[in-house]
Specification:
Elements lengths: L6 E5 L4 H12 L3 E6 L2 H10 L4 E4 L5 H14 L5 E4 L15 H27 L4 E6 L12 H20 L5 E6 L20 H12 L5 E2 L5 H4 L6 H14 L5
Parallel strand pairs: 1-2, 1-4, 2-3, 4-5, 5-6, 6-7
Helix pairs in contact: 1-6, 3-4, 4-5
Bound molecules: NADP nicotinamide-adenine-dinucleotide phosphate.
Length: 252
């Protein structure tokens, strides 16, 4: 995608990857609009980046999505990029009953959220001369982390939805890109400085460089082998990966 001259709406732009990408686009002179539930994070981010705008939005709430997107279109009619970034990652245990709240929250945030955001903005995006939808999945879309089973499943589902959406929009002005991050050191679980996690600034730099291409999928070089693993022989690597992660889990 073109990295300048855009009006970009980012869900979950008040922290972590969303904020990092928001600030990178802001520095390049784009009009950036961020959203999220925590007003303090949004206020802090726009104060640090004069000209950036923010709207409170809960993507689990279809009414909130409808009213906020209507307002953004009215306030920023040149809006041409939607970055579906917001997400949550609770642990679970698929060997036991998983409570309804965990299931509902993860699926509603990580999968239904981006689908509803796109539905609310798609007619507007198609009316622009050049638009982009970016969906933030995860390397775990390709190699599930077993004790984030519902999370990994929502990311695999979002990858699938992204492919269908790309095909359905092939003859329109809307391109669809996917960002599949590796483990990045954010507060998604807990910022820990774990050496296995990629520092946020390193991730943002490589991601922006790759976004500048027209690649359908953006992922850092370090996870290429995980991206390439799915196939009829995927199970052996998947099992080894999860044995390693069980022995040395993500710090919580
Ligand atoms: N960090 C990683 O290792 C990693 C790896 C692969 C993929 N990802 C993906 O990257 C995305 C960003 O995560 P992050 O690592 O940057 O963690 P983060 O700092 O926790 O960011 C998540 C963002 O989502 C927002 N959010 C969560 N629930 C929301 C809701 N119901 N409505 C609106 N906004 C909501 C949060 O804002 P509020 O709480 O203020 O609403 C927050 O700004 C997620 O989709 C995650 O799955 C991260």
């Amino acid at each position: 995608m073109k990295l300048t001259g855009n009006t970009i709406f980012i869900t979950g732009g008040g922290s972590g990857i969303g904020r990092g990408i928001a600030e990178a686009f802001h520095k390049l002179g784009n009009q950036v609009i961020i959203s999220g539930r925590r007003k303090a994070n949004l206020d802090e981010t726009i104060k640090a980046n004069p000209g950036m705008a923010a709207y409170e939005l809960d993507i689990t709430d279809p009414e909130s999505i409808k009213s906020v997107t209507r307002k953004i279109i009215a306030d920023y009619p040149a809006l041409n990029v939607l970055f579906n970034n917001a997400g949550i990652m609770p642990f679970d245990d698929a060997a036991k009953p998983i409570d309804e709240k965990t299931i509902g929250d993860v699926v509603t945030t990580n999968l239904l959220g981006p689908i509803r955001m796109t539905s609310a903005l798609i007619d507007h995006l198609k009316a622009q001369p050049s638009s982009v939808i970016i969906n933030n999945t995860s390397v775990l879309a390709y190699v599930p982390l077993a004790y984030n089973a519902v999370y990994s499943a929502t990311k695999a589902a979002l990858h699938s939805f992204t492919m269908s959406q790309r095909f359905a929009l092939r003859d329109t002005s809307v391109k669809v890109q996917e960002i599949a991050p590796p483990w990045v050191d954010t507060d998604l679980v807990k910022k820990s400085g774990d050496p296995r996690a990629m520092p946020l600034d390193v991730f943002v730099k490589e991601t922006m460089e790759k976004l500048a291409t027209d690649s359908e999928e953006i992922y850092v070089d370090a996870i290429k082998s995980l991206r390439d693993n799915p196939g009829s022989n995927e199970h052996e690597f998947f099992f080894q990966f999860n044995e390693v992660m069980v022995a040395d889990p993500i710090p919580v």
